[in-house]
Specification:
Helices cover 51% and strands 17% of the residues. The chain is of the alpha+beta class. It has five helices and five strands; from the N terminus they run ααααβββββα. β3 and β4 form a beta hairpin.
Length: 195
């Protein structure tokens, strides 16, 4: 009976990540595609599975392209100035804008994985990402900002730590993030250089 229980849990460990990933992708697809198709079907007169997702991806890509044109830049600047004048909206917009830019923009922030010595006596380290190398604006020239994602979660903590306690690690940023978010259970390949 003990062996059967062990096999069952091994099966769960094997199947659960695949099933959960497929379920999340399916749920997002059904929700977005269903909502868009529900609104598009009356216009085109018939149902095409996946059309909503295709239109969504194409629309966002087109908006990104249009947003980079010289014609739209003054409008973006005007909208940005307007948003900056509204305190709560400015806080939300700038925080979200900076967060998305950190992951996919021209100013990616999570691309320098490091290890930080937290307890020298017990030789305890934490993995994180340098998000800001210089903190002169806070009068902390000898400090750097390191973001530590939480395991099994998409939140994290930001610490300001002395530079001499921060050391680069020779893994890719994506592998470092997967390793931390998975609580250290993801297998990571060591790289010769850091991006």
């Amino acid at each position: 009976m003990k062996k059967l229980g062990s096999y069952f849990f091994q099966g769960v460990i094997l199947v659960a990540p695949i099933v959960i990933t497929i379920y999340i992708l399916y749920a997002v697809f059904v929700r977005v595609d269903g909502w868009l198709v529900h609104n598009l079907e009356p216009l085109i007169g018939f149902y095409i599975p996946g059309l909503g997702i295709v239109i969504l991806v194409a629309s966002v890509t087109l908006l990104g392209f249009i947003g980079q044109t010289a014609l739209v830049r003054p409008i973006k600047k005007l909208a940005g100035n307007l948003i900056r004048r509204i305190p709560l909206l400015n806080l939300l917009y700038s925080a979200l804008n900076d967060l998305f830019s950190a992951f996919v923009g021209n100013e990616k922030k999570f691309n320098v994985p490091v290890k930080v010595l937290f307890n020298q006596e017990n030789n305890l380290w934490k993995l994180g990402f340098i998000t800001k190398d210089s903190l002169e604006e806070f009068d902390l020239e000898e400090m750097t900002a390191v973001y530590f994602p939480h395991s099994y979660n998409f939140s994290g903590e930001l610490y300001l730590v002395p530079r001499d306690r921060v050391q680069p690690v020779s893994v890719s940023p994506a592998d470092a993030m997967k390793f931390v978010v998975s609580a250290g259970v993801t297998r990571v390949e060591k790289n010769a250089q850091i991006n």
